[in-house]
Write a structure and sequence with these properties.
The protein has a domain at 128-262. It has 15 helices and no strands. The chain has helices spanning 2-31, 37-59, 67-86, 98-127, 129-150, 165-178, 180-185, 189-213, 218-235, 238-254, 264-274, 283-302, 325-358, 362-386, 404-438. It starts with a helix and ends with a helix.
Length: 439
C-alpha cells in the first residue's frame, strides 16, 4: 500500500486536472467563449507523462523520495489548467508553443537527471566547480551583451539566464563544502571573513553585476536571500540570519537615496510598495498602479472558494499568465485554493530541506539545501509581490508562471533533490548492512 501511495497521488493530480479542464470548458459554454478541444487533449496527454516517469523510476528501482515528483504533478496540472483557461482569451495560441515543449522536456528530464547523478557524477562535478563558475560567467556575459544590443527582441524576450541558478548553486555549494570546517568551527572572525565571506561575496557579486546589466534586478533579491538562508542552514548560527535581516532593512532604508541611479520601473515598484496612494487620484497614479491594484482586487474578489475556473476577468489584467499568475488562481479558486497551493509549495520546500540535512556528503547537502531555498524564496517573492507584501520583482512563480527556461531550471532542481534522496537512502542501507555483518 505504501509503495502505491505515490502512484495514487499522481493519478489524483491527473484526475483533478481533467476535472479543472471540464469546468473551464463548461464555463466557456456559459460565457459564450470558445474552448478548443485539441489543447484539452494535449494537456491531459502531458499529465499522463508523469505516469510514464513514475514507471521509468520503478524500472530504475528508484528508492528515493517521490514527494517532489508528486508536487510537480499537482503544480503542472494547475499550470496546464490555467494555460487552457488563458486559451479562452486567445484561441489562436499555437498547440505546441515553446513553453509547452519546455514543459514536456522538463518532465521527461527528471529520470534522466536522477540516472545521471546516481552514477557518481556528483564527485566529478564537485572537483570542477571553479570551471563551472567560469563557464557560467562567460555565458552570462555573452547574454548581457546580446540582450543590451538587441533589447527585448533577444530570444523573443525570454530569459535563458534562469538556467544560471543551477551552476551558481553548485559553485557556492562546492566552495562551502571545501571550507565548511572553517566556516562552522573557526572562532577567529578575521580568518572567517578572509577565507569564507570575501570569496563567497565575489562568487555572489560577479553574476549579480551581469544580472543588473541585463535589467533583471529580481535575481539579486533571490540570490541575496539564498546566501543569507544557506549560511544559516550550514552554520546553524542565528548571527548570520539576523545580520542578513539587518542588512536587508539597511538596503530598504537607503533605496530612496539611490533613485537617480536605479531604472525607472524599479523606482516605481518601490514607491508603490512604500506609498500605494501617493498621487491619488491622478491619471498618472492610476496608470502606475493599474496592474498591482487589479491583482489586489482579484485576490479579494476570489473570496473563500473563488468564482470558478474560467469565470475570472483575466482580459483586464496584463501579465496574468506570467508574473501575476497567482492572482488569477486566487480569483478563480479562492482562499481555499491558494492555501492549498501554498501548502503544496511548502511540502516541496520541507521535503527538500529534510533531504538536504540528511545528506552525509557536504557538497550534496549544500546543493540540495540551496535548490530548496531558491524554490521557497522565489515562491515567497512572487506571491509577496502580487499581494503587495514586498515590492514587485518580475520573478516567475515556480512551475506555474509561463516561462520555459524557468520550468526547465526548477525541474532540474527537483531531479537533483530526488537523486540526492536516493543516494542517501542507499548509503543508509549500506551502513546498516555493514553493521549487521559486524554483529
Amino acid at each position: 500500500m505504501k509503495n502505491r501511495c505515490e502512484l495514487y497521488l499522481i493519478i489524483l493530480s491527473i484526475m483533478m486536472t481533467v476535472l479543472a479542464h471540464f469546468e473551464i470548458y463548461y464555463s466557456a459554454f456559459l460565457t459564450g467563449n470558445f474552448a478548443s478541444t485539441p489543447p484539452f487533449i494535449r494537456n491531459i496527454s502531458i499529465m499522463l507523462l508523469f505516469l510514464i516517469v513514475y514507471a521509468v523510476l520503478k524500472v530504475m528501482k528508484f528508492k528515493g523520495n517521490y514527494i517532489p515528483l508528486i508536487v510537480i504533478s499537482f503544480l503542472t496540472g494547475i499550470n496546464l489548467s490555467l494555460n487552457y483557461r488563458f486559451a479562452l482569451s486567445s484561441p489562436s495560441t499555437r498547440l505546441f508553443s515553446t513553453f509547452i515543449i519546455s514543459l514536456i522536456l522538463g518532465i521527461l528530464f527528471i529520470p534522466i537527471i536522477i540516472f545521471y547523478f546516481r552514477n557518481n557524477w556528483i564527485a566529478k562535478l564537485k572537483r570542477r566547480y571553479y570551471l563551472l563558475f567560469g563557464t557560467t560567467i562567460l555565458c552570462l556575459f555573452i547574454w548581457s551583451i546580446i540582450s543590451n544590443i538587441i533589447g527585448e527582441k533577444f530570444l523573443f524576450s525570454r530569459t535563458p539566464w534562469e538556467l544560471a541558478k543551477i551552476p551558481i548553486v553548485f559553485v557556492i555549494g562546492g566552495f562551502l563544502s571545501e571550507y565548511s570546517i572553517i566556516f562552522i568551527k573557526k572562532n577567529n572572525f578575521f580568518v572567517l571573513i578572509l577565507i569564507i565571506i570575501c570569496p563567497i561575496f565575489l562568487l555572489w557579486i560577479i553574476p549579480q553585476i551581469l544580472f543588473i546589466a541585463m535589467g533583471d534586478l529580481g535575481q539579486i533579491i533571490i540570490f541575496s536571500l539564498f546566501i543569507l538562508f544557506l549560511f544559516f542552514a550550514v552554520s546553524g548560527k542565528f548571527v548570520y540570519f539576523f545580520s542578513g535581516v539587518l542588512f536587508i532593512f539597511f538596503i530598504i532604508y537607503i533605496i530612496p537615496f539611490l533613485y537617480r541611479f536605479l531604472p525607472e520601473y524599479v523606482v516605481a515598484r518601490f514607491e508603490i510598495w512604500t506609498d500605494f496612494w501617493n498621487g491619488f487620484p491622478s491619471t498618472e497614479w492610476f496608470s502606475r498602479i493599474y496592474q498591482p491594484l487589479n491583482s489586489l482586487f482579484a485576490v479579494h474578489s476570489g473570496g473563500l472558494f473563488g468564482v470558478g475556473f474560467g469565470m475570472g476577468y483575466t482580459d483586464l489584467k496584463p501579465k496574468s499568465s506570467t508574473d501575476f499568475i497567482y492572482y488569477v488562481h486566487a480569483e478563480e479558486i479562492g482562499f481555499i485554493g491558494t492555501l492549498s497551493l501554498i501548502l503544496i509549495y511548502f511540502s516541496l520546500l520541507i521535503s527538500g530541506l529534510i533531504t538536504g540535512f540528511k545528506c552525509s556528503d557536504n557538497f550534496v547537502r549544500y546543493c540540495v539545501l540551496g535548490f530548496s531555498i531558491i524554490i521557497g524564496i522565489q515562491t515567497f517573492v512572487n506571491i509577496g509581490g502580487v499581494i503587495n507584501l514586498i515590492p514587485l520583482t518580475g520573478i516567475p512563480l515556480p512551475f506555474l508562471s509561463k516561462g520555459g527556461f524557468a520550468y526547465l531550471t526548477f525541474s532540474f532542481m527537483v531531479g537533483f533533490i530526488m537523486a540526492a534522496s536516493e543516494m542517501e537512502k542507499n548509503l543508509t542501507i549500506s551502513h546498516s548492512s555493514q553493521e549487521y555483518l559486524r554483529k
